[in-house]
Amino acid sequence: MPSVSIERIERDITAISRFGFNEADGGVYRQGFSPEDMAVREWLRARFAELGMSHRMDGAGNVIGRFDPAGRGEDVPAVIIASHTDSVPASGMFDGVLGVVAGLEVVRTMKANGIEPLYPVEVIATAEEEGRFGGMLGAQAMTGHLTREWLDAAADERGVKLVDAMREAGLDPSRAMHAYRPPETIRAYLELHVEQGPVLDTEKTTIGIVEGISGVFKWMVRLIGKADHAGTAPMNMRADALMGMADFAHEIPRIIEEEGTGKSRITIGHVNCKPGFPHTVPGEVDFTIVGRDLDHDKMKALASACERVLAAIARRNKLHFEYEQMSWLAPAYCDTGLISLIEGKTKELGYSYKIMPSGAGHDVQFFCEHSRAGLFFVPSVKGVSHAPDEWTHWVDCERGTRLLYECVCELACNEGALEEAGQAERV
């Protein structure tokens, strides 16, 4: 029987990489609702048409191709394969794109093998996953997490409003609220993605089966001291705000050791030092703290510990401390039935694997409480992602697509697939 074709996978990924390619730095620039992003969507619809799939773009900009050779109609729930084709600035060629191309290849292979599924198979390229406007618009809209208030207020870092960008791309923003997919229309949601981290590559493991998406909290912290002359202010008389931040940074490993887990992450990602002059003691420092863990209680414990430690450091350094919580996203857990199914098919194929969390956000996190949802990774070389030198070996793309094919065939063609894999109970 015909199997997935790495030649077709490579051809499609390479073709998509040309949309928004910048020769100067070798990066891909295909931000959500840009002309390049919309051009890829039309390219994808042409591929759906070649395969005889019905296809459409919903009000949120999600491009949906449906493989339903038996003509069972919209009332039959679909097995969804989804990821995204938009990018961050100066991105690589695999992030998101592999999952969409793999979906195309799954349908091609099913057709080549004469498979007529009991349940339709949909391949979806979600809209605006990379968060140009601060969310994951397509997944939010399909799962009922989109509000009109957020839609109207969302803007990118340059001040361009989401609704204006949608109109410029030929979409009516009000139609985004009509993109909702009731849970009963979804049999299962599967996403294949490159890991975007170094674990699988370092450990020489073929597949990462994701147990859940880590929760994330983001703080904006301000430490206020006293700006002073760097030459005349004695060291023991200073209220150096930057020193307070440095003290906190050194405390992060202890906080995780005492309150977190091996899946915990705390990061200071952005720092603004004021007045920012070489000969002046910093009187104020604003910085971000982003914390992650797969356990919600651990997230709360990490946040509480950060607050206690910052307060103690502020007192010790004669500083004033304040913070604002910018966001709090709870962990999202993949369906245990799908985890079991993916694990079983991985074993059948003879691939090495590990069960692991995802520290990065993905569309799947919005589907986890909406339907049966699963995610698995293939390695990223050296863990590089969101950069021009992002790479995943073609053999790993082929293995991931083959695993996706086996899982989709089981879900789409076997009425009792999920029950056989185990009762689907969320973690």
Automatic annotation (TrEMBL):
Superkingdom per UniProt: Bacteria
InterPro entries: Amidase_Cbmase, Bact_exopeptidase_dim_dom, Peptidase_M20
GO molecular function: hydrolase activity
Organism: Novosphingobium mangrovi
Keywords, comma-separated and alphabetical: Hydrolase
Family per similarity comment: Belongs to the peptidase M20 family.
Gene3D superfamilies assigned: 3.30.70.360, Zn peptidases
Record keyword Hydrolase present: yes
Name this protein carries in UniProt: Zn-dependent hydrolase
